[in-house]
Amino acid sequence: MDKYVYELTLKVRDYECDLQGIVNNANYQHYLEHARHEFLCSVGVSFAELHTQGVDPVVARINMAFKTPLKSGDEFVCKLYMKKEGIKYIFYQDIFRKSDDKVVVKAAVETVCVVNGRLSDSELFDRIFAPYLK
Question: Which CATH class is domain 6-132?
Answer without folding.
Answer: alpha beta
